[in-house]
Amino acid sequence: MIQTTTTVRDQVATLKYVKWNKKYINEEKPFQLYADLPVDIPDSVRGNVEFEDGEPEIIHDIRGLQHEFDLDTHGFAFREFSPDDFVDWENADAVRALYYPQMERLMKKHVPGADKVHMFQHRVRLFVIPSRLVVNET
């Protein structure tokens, strides 16, 4: 049974959702660009979505309950995975050449009927220590 009550480790959070717009039906799909665009390009080119706050929700800490979730019922599943000594996350070519094949094998092993897996994009989130930020003071 999936956890429905709160525990000490659970958190209440307000999540943001895409605000519905009727143009998404026939005119254009919602999109948002995550790229460095020239400053003189209007903001409207960067995306056509607006976000709105949802109702407060409980974010459950599911540690120890991972086995209760499966892809067919919940749309996600947890699997143990440690990349084979991969550390070069900032090198996009290395990620594609070494990490993508590992993910392909993982998906084929754990997703029933998956005979072809295609990774088309990845994003590496980096944490920058604020004291190391360089500020241009002119």
Secondary structure topology:
Blueprint: E1 11-18, H1 23-26, E2 51-59, H2 71-74, H3 92-110
Antiparallel strand pairs: 1-2
Quick recap:
The protein is α+β, with helices and mostly antiparallel strands.
Structure characterization notes:
- The protein is α+β, with helices and mostly antiparallel strands and 138 residues long.
- The protein folds into two domains: 1-78, no CATH class; 84-133, no CATH class.
- Helix content is 20%, strand content 12%.
- The chain has three helices and two strands; from the N terminus they run E-H-E-H-H.
- It has helices spanning 23-26, 71-74, 92-110; strands spanning 11-18, 51-59.
- The protein has a two-stranded antiparallel ribbon.
- The longest helix is centred in the last third of the chain and has 19 residues, at 92-110.
- It is extended, with a radius of gyration of 20 Å.
Q: What structural category characterises the helix and strand content?
A: alpha+beta
Q: What fraction of residues sit in β-strands?
A: 5-15%
Count of domains: 2
Largest sheet: 2 strands, antiparallel
Instruction: Please give the alpha-carbon distance between the first and last residues.
Output: 60 Å
Kindly state the percentage of residues in helix. 10-25%
Q: How many beta-strand segments?
A: 2
Q: What shape does the CA trace take?
A: extended
Radius of gyration: 20 Å
Element string (H = helix, E = strand): EHEHH
Give the integer mean of the pLDDT values.
Answer: 83
